Amino acid sequence: MTSFRKTALWRVISTWRGGLSLAVLLLVALAAIFAPWVAPYPYDIQNLSATNKDPSLAHWLGTDEFGRDVLSRIIYGARTSLSVALAAIGISVTLGM
Questions:
Q1: For labelling alongside 32, which of 55, 78, 83, 85 has CA 20 to 30 A away?
Q2: What does the pLDDT profile of the chain (97 residues) look like in tens digits?
Q3: How would you classify residue 85: left for phi > 0, otherwise alpha for psi between -120 and 50, otherwise beta?
Q4: What DSSP character marks residue 47?
Q5: Residue 53: CB partners within 8 Å, gap ≥ 6?
Q6: CB under 8 Å to 66, separation ≥6 — which residues?
Q7: What residues form DSSP beta bridges with 69?
Q8: Please, which residues have CB within 8 angstroms of residue 81's CB and are 6 or more apart in sequence?
């Protein structure tokens, strides 16, 4: 790595806020990449007997109006967002060159 990158990375992780932010971003990215293995439930399976449930040990963030687990939907949504962001970066780099 160049000295500029080392300096920038060190400035980010040297404070507790920067380190915490980097850890959260890394956690979200890893959860998005490994979504099929990390998500507790399938994101698209409906369970109409569990509609609009409050958060519990079974569903950490509760369920939506169709009984789908909200945490699983957030994890899979992060996967979609990550792939769109990488595609946008790839297109902009290609056009920039």
A1: 55
A2: 578 888 888 888 889 999 999 999 999 999 999 999 999 999 999 999 999 999 999 999 999 999 999 999 999 999 999 999 999 999 999 999 9
A3: alpha
A4: -
A5: 59, 62, 63, 67
A6: 46, 47, 48, 51
A7: 63
A8: 32
